[in-house]
Design a protein that fits this description.
192 residues, mainly alpha, Arc Repressor Mutant, subunit A, Tetracycline Repressor, domain 2, 9 helices
């Protein structure tokens, strides 16, 4: 858990970001240790090293802290996938790298209570649209290069990939995830 710095950072905004980040990190660690229902605002304030009144200036409840954490996690995942998509090289290889990373992210899902809480926010729908657009672009490039099938529109192929690889969240091993990615990629190959 990350404690709030005692000295103010260079600016008030930087200090507020530090308090917010420390609160989010502390809450995530507490939920991982005690479960969703085993964490209180008092515990978060104490472990973060701030007063409860200060904590309530940032977040009204534990749920809002967890939603902020989830938004931050999703943004990091999207940036990771976008970075892979922007790399140099053949579109098919970049597509495979993005799909493999996405499947790996899916494998590290949360417990069902936490997942139900976190996936009801609008930020998830926005992230899915962003990811679908990223995949659609890569699929279009790969189709133009003759690396994947052209008989199915890229948007439909993006839906196929997302639905197929979301199943990686239920797989027990990294090897199983890699097999699922290979099967998904095989479904994208051009018919001979």
């Amino acid at each position: 858990m990350r404690a709030v710095p005692r000295l103010w950072n260079e600016t008030i905004d930087a200090h507020r970001r530090a308090v917010r980040d420390a609160t989010i990190d502390t809450t995530a660690a507490l939920v991982a240790k005690h479960g969703l229902r085993g964490v209180t605002m008092s515990q978060i304030a104490e472990d973060t090293g701030i007063g409860r009144a200060t904590l309530y200036k940032y977040f009204p409840d534990v749920e809002s802290i967890l939603l902020a954490w989830h938004e931050r996690e999703i943004a990091g995942h999207l940036e990771q996938l976008a970075t892979l998509a922007r790399q140099t090289g053949a579109p098919g290889k970049r597509l495979a790298a993005v799909l493999e990373a996405f499947a790996g992210i899916q494998r590290h899902q949360h417990d069902s209570d936490l997942s139900a809480l976190l996936h009801r926010g609008g930020h998830v729908g926005h992230a899915e649209q962003h990811l679908r657009g990223l995949l659609r672009g890569l699929l279009s490039e790969a189709a133009a290069a003759g690396e994947i099938r052209k008989d199915v529109p890229p948007d439909e192929l993006a839906t196929y990939c997302l639905h197929a690889l979301t199943g990686a969240g239920r797989l027990a091993s990294k090897d199983a995830v890699q097999r699922l990615v290979k099967v998904t990629l095989a479904g994208l190959r051009p018919s001979r």
